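B., you asked whether I could sanity-check this one before it goes into the benchmark set. Here's the sequence:
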Amino acid sequence: MTNEVRGTAPPRVVLVSGASMFYGAYLVSRLAQNPAVERVIAVDAKTPSKDLLRRMGRAEFVRADIRNPLISKVIAGNEVDTVVHSATMARPLKSGSRTAMKDANVLGAMQLFAVCQKTPSVRKVVVRSSSSVYGSSAKDPVKFTEDMGALRPPRGAFARDMIEVEGFARGLARRRPDIAISVLRLAPTVGPQLLGSAVRYVTSPLVPSVLGRDARLQLLHEEDALAALELATVSGPAGTFNIGGDGLLMLSQAIRRAGRVEIPMPFSVFSNAGRFLMGPLMRDYTSAQMDYFQFGCAMDTSRMRSVLGFEPRWTTPQAFDDFVKGAALRPVIKPDWIDAAEAGLLNLVGAKAGAL
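And here's what the prediction gave me:
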């Protein structure tokens, strides 16, 4: 994204898409509590649950599909100046298909951005994107910066959708350079309320892994994800930003911290044996997720601090531990047992080395 202008005055009227989903609903709740924002309009084709509607407080819910041209009446009629696009699905709905998912993600963004382009009152657009646009492969750099792309085209449908969505956002920036467009590439998000695929993987008592691989995991706590989106909406500058917690966890470390049992196996049997060990949990994993559990992904977050001005409260290990605590996982093997065994082994090796 090239139109890197600083955020100006706080928005007067904010429209948030995807209000029945986690990111949209909880962001609406935060914005509704922010006195700097005059009005908050929550939009979704599906009515949120009663609990989510209650959380939204003073926000106004409008049942509308962003794929329908009538969304222009909602934006223009309410003189919306800031649009937050968070209505993207990471996987098809249980009753849906890949075609329906692509229709919602890609066509929805295309229609929404087209309306933004034609509406004079719109001055800012915030896009919730994902680190999945970088893919996962053995050729990956130590950390991806915002000006890098995937070294191998991502195999996942969601990643391909997000690449297209970001392309539409860049097109909007070229056609309406007066609109400040912020794209936030969120690391896999975890927490007590949101169970991302990166952590659901370690909820099984027996966790298969690829022999000879130890994926690098960079995570983002759900509270930090919402805080970053709120900052970008209210006062953040335009640009593309990697959003992730400090530090990394190797997959083997995550399995150990969760008290699970790791079972390394060759990749040739990883998918089949893994599905047998983990049951339906792993059957839903896409090819992109299988790549992720081989290689992981790490992002450089320097611009997140220096330009966006955002500092996560939770590190990657802290975010993961909070997930484990919230999910109330009972350890199969207690970590202190492993620590004691390792300490005993090190002492034994040291004693033998001293005797030589």
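One thing to flag: DSSP finds 14 helices and 14 strands in the chain. Otherwise nothing jumped out at me.
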